[in-house]
Here is the input.
Amino acid sequence: MYQRILVAVDDSKTSRRALDYALAKAHDNGAQLRVVHVIDIPTPYVADVDPTPFIEAMRTLGDSIREDAVKRMKEANVKGDVEIREILPLGEDIPHQIIAASEAFDADVIVVGTHGRRGFRRLALGSVAENCARRATRPVILIPHAAAALQGDGDAVPPPASLSETTATAWPCI
Here is the structure.
């Protein structure tokens, strides 16, 4: 069904579940996987503060996310790569970068985790997942933040033996 899957990740549990889902789908379909992490470079709000240490910390986190994704793709026997994108201050937003990455990769589908924020928190923080779904020109699969609650479902299908323990944990939400 899918031959080219793009999954957007950050350092959250929800995005790890999205990666689990994308790994399982890529494995099942023999698809190529592109993992995308977007670093949003902040605008310095205080004149005399050097943002370099914060930016370097964000880049280090991106490297850690890349290493984890590469390891998990090898464990799942999935072919693919990891792309790290940076947004300069006052540049495009994260959803724009995810969609641009999906177009450059010619993805059949985009997989994104959603944190399930409501009310003021959603208004203040926005929703990357919602904006991806609204703006994308290709299918978007949203993985809910509550996906782990499905693990106790007795009707869940066991994961393929070749998938990692982490991927097997997310299997019931697939």
